[in-house]
Records
---
Amino acid sequence: MLARDFKRLLLVVVPVVVIICTILRFYQHTPIAPSKVNEWLSDRIDSSQGKGNVESDHEQEAEVPISFGHTESSIEETSKDGNPTTADGPPPRPPLSNTPNPLDIQASHQEIFSVSTLDRRYFPIDFAGQLNGMNPNIIPHPTLANTWIVVAQLVRSAEEQSVYFTELVCNAVFQDGVLRCLAPPTALPVAPTQGNNCNGDLAFFSLNVGPHDARVLYGPESPYIVYGSNSQFTCFGQFIQDFRQLVDWPASETGPRDFLTGTELQRPLPWGAIEKNWFPFWDPAGQMYIHYDVAPKRVFARAQADGSVSVNLAVLTEAEDDRCLASYMPKADNGLESVHQASNSLKVTMCKRSDAGCVPNKDNTFIFTIWQHKTYYNFHSVYEPYVMLFQQEAPFAVHAVSKRPLWIHGRQQHLDLFTSDMFYVTSIAWRRADLRYHGFLDDELFIGFGIEDGASGAIDVTAEELMSGLDLCSEA
């Protein structure tokens, strides 16, 4: 009887003991939640309560590269909150550190160096007086050795409110690594224009008096100035004039006498309300054309002496140009980025003048210009310049484009503000007076640029260095 009761007790107790041991072993070897999950939950809770560990956040994001805008070619659209997004989602936040990683210039840009300054940096332009200029143009003086004509927009202080705009002009020489005016600059006597086509938000443009953002340049024979002013066709247009009519130019200098007074240039329809940055170019026969846009579509036309133009001739090469530019041009459709023209044009033969076998022909000679990719992040504009070559003869198809933007040696990064100096390229010109429009790879040229809307600088480089970073459209 006792034995039978003991067996019954075992049948009850043993399963209970097994169950209890199993439960104890489970709790000893398995936590309620994995430690990494606990850490993630803790971080999320702290973050949502505004008590996140800033130092920890910095450690997690320290390897995120800084975006200066120019390399963000993957940006496709803007999210509902106004922040740019990519195909992989929103871009990463900038690092929280006050000393973020610098931009790797060698990887992201083609850095160019001065051939004349001791430190190979760009050189400033000194206007030798109380007046200051920005967005400069530099062309060699036609008769004075080692002297250049500088034209730049007058800079006013933030306190000065005026409807009068002025282009300054002076003769300049190099002194102590600076291109310095020999005397304080004077106002270029560009006649103001009238127009009654500025309405609504643009009505204030009707009050404008004087030229804006001039481009002074050499054509094949004659120098010209192209500038913005009030238009008879739209609100604000582009005008051209023979530069010799505005300065003390030697009478011995000959050449075509077109555009003796300021002449408004026209364009194929449609007009923009504010037109800017147009540049002329010439074919081998000396016929002038005007290039209006490089993006979103190329637009150019043949120009006449009265400012009238032909239809848009870019349609003849539209398919191949679009394919080339789409391959090399940064995308700029998120509202914070844009692509537009910047400089005038020059012609270059892609071999060296010093080579006996270097003979210009239609296959080795091209027209080139500089356009810019503008970004506006952190409330600061930045412009990244690219070189573009196109054929010197009709149909003027695009031949090559910079694979990376240019970085002018001496331009500074401002890591605490997640940005860099704003250099705005405005002009290109051969350094030698006898070259005018056409040069070779071993010829030197000036690239002029404005600095932060308050100063002027330039760099002298060989055409060979400038052209060394091109990608051919045939390889697009």
Note: The radius of gyration is 31 Å.
---
Amino acid sequence: MDEFASIRHWTANRQPASWQHARGVALGIGDDAAALDFGNAEDGITGDKRLLLAMDTMVESVHFSERTMRDEDIGFKALAANVSDIAAMGGVPLHAVVSVSVPRAYGAERMKRVYDGLYSCAERYGIAVVGGDTTSSPAHMVISVALTGAVEAGLELRRSGAKAGDAVFVTGPVGMSAAGLHLLQHAGASRWAEGSQRLDDNSYGVLCAAHQRPAPSVLAGRLLLKSGFCHSLNDVSDGLSSEAWELAEASGLRLVLEERLLPKSGSLSTYAASVGVNPLEWMLYGGEDYVLVGTVLRESADSVKAEFHRHGLPFYVIGRTEEGPPDVELIPLSSRMDGAGAKAPRGHRVKVEKKGYNHFGT
């Protein structure tokens, strides 16, 4: 099957032309470039709007392997990572272009499964897939996705808007994806080889799902934008620590997090204890949770939380912002001991290391 036949095999009859037209697609897959009627896309935004553009790449052996991801999961997650970036701006995802570099060993049917996962994510979030590029690869599969979105003009949520005295929040538990990755990497090969079912047959299946099929927080981002109380926003892709530092540096202030307030799932705690890992390590530095972290006007945090709950969404206040040079600090649990073995005083703070996933870190 040549390049063009492969593309048709992966993408044909996936999305009705009438649906793509409603999403603002004038010309989709089949020409040298897509043509988009962005202004008339049915995206729920009235009045002036701005175009958002995000891009993300996943590389085999860096972001995924056969041990940790099914082919369908790879496609789903490649698009979901971009959806999360649009969500972090308060926007609505619209159009995707997909570039794949495919090793000969993959074959057309395996790549079709990758596209099955990608289109599953596209269907969930109302995204029109409008084109891309295909090349061969000598060894590893690479998939890059660029995604457009729309947001009300001038209302984009940024990292740089936090104000001293804000409440710091997250829109869901953190550390789940990192725990799931650890579980998948350390599970016996017989539990995962040859396309066997994911580890859904035990109490840790939710951790595996968090890593393989993340759920970007689009509705949460829209609620935060519409509330008018959200001052800054970021998505947790590289770890809560890394994203908190980005907010602190962009806004020029200090974030103070409280360990007792960090949302932690029971499955995460149980699994961490079973393998001798401090769950806080995954929660702060794990990444790929794709929940949102940001700041809101402290006086309005309760009303924002109530609005989230009306939509069936979680919302956790986990700290506050303070004036001062950019920094991220953590108030540990009261039972935490200091380096000498003595109980730390009430309100004691520790500096949160500026680390998380970094492709060029040492």
Note: Residues 107-125 form the longest helix (19 residues).
---
Amino acid sequence: MDVGWFAGIVIGGLSGWLAGKLMDLRFGIFLNVVIGIVGAVLANAIFDRAGIHVASGWLGYLVQGFVGSCILLFVAKLVRR
């Protein structure tokens, strides 16, 4: 199910913000949202290729985006050091 590009940006931004809060990283809300959008796109592509379907609709995209955002924020934290 495709939620559309605007909804994808909003959900990706939300997942990035949530991941930043969970991981307690202080990159700033703008960078967390950007990382969230990129993480959502990457996680969606990886999960689709692997055949993993978390849930359908916006909730599935939120979970996938959250996982992708956490991974990207972790990598950004390593690079930042």
Note: The mean pLDDT is 80.
